[in-house]
Amino acid sequence: MELIRLEDVEFSYGDRPVLRGVNLGVQENLVTVLVGPSGSGKSTVLRLIAGFEAPNRGCLSIGDQVVATGSRVFKTPESRGVSMVFQDLALWPHMTVGQTLEFVLGRDVARRERRSRITETLAALGLDERVGARPAELSGGERQRLALARALVTRPRIVLMDEPLANLDPPLRLALLDEIRNLGRRFALTIIYVTHNQQEAFSLGDHAAVLHEGRIEQAGSPRELYERPSTAFVASFLGRCALLPGKFHDGHVETALGMLSGADGDATREDIAVVIRPEDVCIDADGPFNGRVEYVTCLGGTFETTITGPGWRLWALTRDEPRLGSSLRFAVKKTVTVPS
Amino acid sequence: MLITGALPLAWMVIAAIGDLATSGAGLVSSRTAMLFGNTMRLGLVVAALVGVVGTTCGVLATKTDLPARRLLLALLTFPLFLPPYILALGWFTVLGRQGLVAAVAGGTAGIRASDTFFSLSGTVLVLTIAYTPVITHLVRIGLRSIDPSIEESARLHFTWPRVLWQVDLPLVAPAIALGMLLTFILVVGEFGVPAYLRYPVFSGAVFTEFASFLNIRGAVVASIPLVLLVLASLAVERYWLRTPAQSLGRVRLTPLVVPLGAWRLPAALGTWAYGLITVALPLAGLAREAGGGASYRAALSGAAASIATSVWTAAAAATIVLAVALMLAYLVERSGRTRRNAFDTALLLLFAAPGTVLGISLILLWNRPGVTGLYTSVAILLIAYIAHYTPVAVRAVGVALQSVSPGVEEAARLAGVSWATMVRRVLVPMLRPALAASWGLTFILCLRDLDLAMTVHPPGIETLPIRVYTLMANSPGPVTAALALLMVTLTGVVTVVAGVAVAVARRTNAWS
After folding, report:
1. Which of A73, A283, A311, B446 keeps 20 to 30 A from B91, CA to CA?
2. Cβ(A225)–Cβ(A218) under 8 Å?
3. Statement: residue A250 has pLDDT above 50
């Protein structure tokens, strides 16, 4: 069931347009990831849902209620049942962990209920030993957990997360991604998670939308976006790929690399590009294509090998480290076409 | 700074300790107790009022959608640039026996208003108006440095009044406390207003010992309680108000504005009324008292030399102060934490030292054979200004210097540039707006100074504030009022010119 709906939403800061007709549906109890480059409008979508900004045009609904339409706002931020984890965390430096959670729960929640919620939330986030600490006394990971605890303790229906893990080192980021996923399930949350990191998008998102220059470029499951991108931008933004300009010809696509078969896509279009992912390139002594090893990057257990030929360049994943400048034969397992 | 400020104060402390045995008995008396009580009462009441009024004005002018906020802020700030005794004179034209109140409400009301004015109440009124802008601006700076997302994270749960009360105000509380403490220090050292309004305090007693009885030793001993009060206040600032930086992340530049809704009109009327009553009313009173052009001509003809002396000494002092401040700010900001704290404390002590006390310490040091040339020339005035006002400029330049990454200097050093060239070609252009602002601020502080100039000025050299203050007691009201208005105009012109210079420097530094 759709919990949040944006219809033809437009928004600008002064005369600089940020969102140009965004349509997005957010499913209840799922994690929706908004992914896109800096300045694409991801954070603005969150700020509109939170109620910090009003759309210039279009309609925004939460549940069965229209909360803003045109430039009219019907529900203020505090009445939308939304929590948010900010990129810079926005912790209150003068309050301890306990005071922060007490503060957001307010006096409307009965004292006993308040205590039990705070205890449960702190335990869930591993902060039960740090109740009396102020943000400045917490480590980076603990601050992140406090920001999460503050967002969750009010039992919101919707949690907005604006690149909350952007400043963390990779191991801590991965650990917290697991925690967010588990907390989402445990508290039945509808999460909208903004990131420009495709790894976060794939590991967290049940659903994803790619934003580019204020428009939703494509929406779907992360796997669908990765495997069947609808534009060259989505294809290249979500992971390393070769984009080879080509033309459909008798069910095949003619490219600088040669004829490629089995390409998904719109065969009626004239100008297309073939998307080839590294994992779809197989090093094979009997393969139909031949190229020169230009560069090799160690990825740990595998190597990413840059292979070039006349008018093309692509990437392959190899177990063994190929020699620079050597010739390599390969096959292409799978391709998809996008408008060029 | 060592020669101009620290050495004289140290010399005075030694002299005071030496004299304590002979004249110290005079310190333990009912008069001392009365002066101490009055000084404390005045300082505490003004600090408390300034805290409440300044915070309210700061919040309204910074966080809300009041109409014409910039203009309102300029109006609320103006008293800071006026010498407090000019404000006192202005209020005298309103609340005096022949003032505006008497003209509107009759002679009896005028007498009652005048009696109230010439007491603690009048002194509190004038000094509260004079120092409220200190807290208004500290609150404004504090509020503008709060990351808006800190407020937004609270807005998801609460309405604006609660966010202001429980998030914003606690975060600016250290700034409010600092402003109140600073006000307390400035008020207990204030000589001009309490003396004019006949409210006996320590600074007046020190000046009387020195100027009326020509008893410099007595003045030194009388300064002891005042110095102890200031030292105690400084200790509070050093040990209790040194809070670590509150920001835990990057700060967005545009502060959030609270919509006042139905309260916008009443709040605007109230704030504008406060601004107009506290600033425009006393100035209108002065204009009414001054009357026609004859008073202005008479004031100008007698004060031309004083105006010239004031302007050139203030300009010269501001220029020297700026050069010294740049060097000291660099030392303070780029040295280790312990050394930085020591520097900072010493500088703060020089600024906090009451003008009369610092003036007497300078006389004690320089009024001796061999260096009388300095003491009897305008040089002593310049030394006094430099000693007293350099710390303000060091703070202003230091804050700007904190925003310059040390990497900027390190890159220049790696390129083989000398330290002096790096300062001239890298730091000075980057700090241009702060340097312009510091020069303007120092110029205005020197221009309006009374306590220090009154104490150290050599015979035959008279600044405009000294002239105005002398005329306040001895001349016809219209000429004094006209001269006071000329002083206000001069201050206003300098403020506007300094403001324009800072704006131009900011524009040329738009890349920063």
Report:
1. B446
2. yes
3. yes
